[in-house]
Design a protein that fits this description.
The chain has 6 helices and 6 strands. By secondary structure, the chain is an alpha/beta fold. It has one domain: Rossmann fold. A 6-stranded mixed β-sheet has the order 3-2-1-4-6-5, sandwiched between helices. Strand 5 and strand 6 form a beta hairpin. Helix 1 crosses helix 2. It is globular and about 40 Å long.
């Protein structure tokens, strides 16, 4: 069984803007070595950050999102999973993983997600650790 992965927004941004290890993790989904999962809420946060923090033009954001949607399975979440972490924005990451049947969440969030280590059997790990395990 191949891993099913949800990438936190920080991994998506790092990977698609700067490359490196986060991109190598995403590339595993692009090459069908793992199954990636995403939801509209993660896409919205990703788009919003590229627009406001990085001032990316809309046409460039659309190209990146289209590329991601081509390799990640989209699931619908209800936004009913709350207070799993101290940051409510992280609840959508965990709910996406639960709904998508994920085995892993790949994140760089040292304050809220990584300290959990697991949630309902879903491993929460860094990009480096994930890459070591599945490259």
């Amino acid at each position: 069984m191949r891993p099913i992965v949800v990438y936190d927004t920080n991994i998506l941004i790092s990977g698609m803007v700067w490359g490196g290890t986060p991109y190598d993790c995403i590339k595993l989904a692009m090459t069908d070595r793992i199954e990636g999962v995403i939801c509209a809420e993660i896409i919205d946060e990703f788009t919003e950050k590229l627009t406001t923090k990085f001032e990316y033009p809309q046409f460039r954001i659309s190209r990146i999102v289209t590329r991601l949607l081509g390799c990640l399975r989209t699931v619908k979440i209800t936004n009913k999973l709350e207070e799993v972490t101290k940051d409510p924005d992280d609840d959508k990451i965990i709910e996406c993983a639960v709904v998508g049947g994920a085995t892993h969440i790949v994140t760089g969030d040292k304050r809220h997600l990584l300290p959990l280590q697991h949630y309902q059997g879903i491993r929460i790990i860094t990009a480096i650790d994930f890459l070591r395990q599945f490259q």
